């Protein structure tokens, strides 16, 4: 195999274009991965729509990559050809800034992000920094594993950020929430799922995955929540979620981009309610979550698309037509 195919964004706001390129050679410390599946994340929409600053252009989006090591570069240890690996959003960190040195590499001052500032997985092949690749053991289906690599990981980090409470609200029941609901229910939480008003498909999916209640975002849940996690990129959900949490409760914003948050009365924040955001992930998050997901019996619901249908997948995600997660499959005709 000497050439690869990739869906490339030349300019934000335009459709991805299919390109053929020579298969690149991994540099020192890098591996060439042959991609089996790549999940489509809402962050990819923000990249494609130009809502995130300074992407590398042209860019190959995609940061939920499952593939096999095709060729390890010089100096790579611990990965051999044919081994299954995951390539997540955090693609590289400097390892010297104060954040990297204090166990907070998710906040690194000079990071690279897969599918945003370095080429990602809407492709047949990708070059990745081996130190940030995740070994994927087990025999899970490649497509069903892909959404774990961002939706799963970010959901997990958001869940830990939500604290110890037992009642948890999830606003926006897409890829991340449909995974986290299962983990949270497995850990004994009562999960309340909030969707767009009237989205009965998402509400019944939520209930089938362990939610004790599902309703529209404007609805008041039957009990106040210890914490709420907002996965939908909708700032108006922040004041709504604040009203749904108890004293001392926490509202966690799990996305990388959100529309503006409307103003709200201070009394809704009063009594030690908190609003926090979650940024990126650490490799430690990944190790933890990939170990927990099989124990919790996480099953992902995926819709598969051929690689060349990436634009259709993005449109379907944008229009809320996907239950669970969309996944691109390079080998699918
Ligand atoms: Zn750093
Ligand atoms: Zn993502």
List keywords for this structure.
8 helices, 7-stranded mixed β-sheet, single chain, 22% helix, binds zinc ion
Topology:
Blueprint: E1 3-8, E2 17-22, E3 30-40, H1 42-48, E4 65-72, E5 84-87, E6 90-92, E7 112-113, E8 125-129, E9 134-135, H2 142-145, H3 151-161, E10 167-171, H4 175-186, E11 190-195, H5 200-208, E12 213-216, E13 225-230, H6 237-244, E14 245-253, E15 274-277, H7 283-295, E16 302-306, H8 310-318, E17 325-329
Parallel strand pairs: 10-11, 10-13, 11-12, 13-14, 14-15, 16-17
Antiparallel strand pairs: 1-2, 3-4, 3-8, 3-17, 4-5, 5-9, 6-7
Bound molecules: zinc ion (2 copies).
One zinc ion (ZN) binds next to loops.
End-to-end gap: 18 Å
Sketch the major β-sheet.
Answer: 7 strands, mixed
Number of strands: 17
Bound molecules: zinc ion
Fold and architecture overview:
The chain has 333 residues and is an alpha/beta fold. 22% of the residues lie in helices and 27% in strands. The chain has eight helices and 17 strands. The chain has helices spanning 42-48, 142-145, 151-161, 175-186, 200-208, 237-244, 283-295, 310-318; strands at 3-8, 17-22, 30-40, 65-72, 84-87, 90-92, 112-113, 125-129, 134-135, 167-171, 190-195, 213-216, 225-230, 245-253, 274-277, 302-306, 325-329. The strands form four sheets. Strands 3, 4, 5, 8, 9, 16 and 17 form a seven-stranded mixed β-sheet that branches. A six-stranded parallel β-sheet has the order 12-11-10-13-14-15, with helices on both faces. The chain has a two-stranded antiparallel ribbon with strand order 1-2. Helix 3 (151-161) crosses helix 4 and helix 3 packs across helix 7 (283-295). The longest helix is centred in the C-terminal third of the chain and has 13 residues, at 283-295. It starts with a strand and ends with a strand. One zinc ion binds at residues 93-94, 97, 99-100, 108-110.
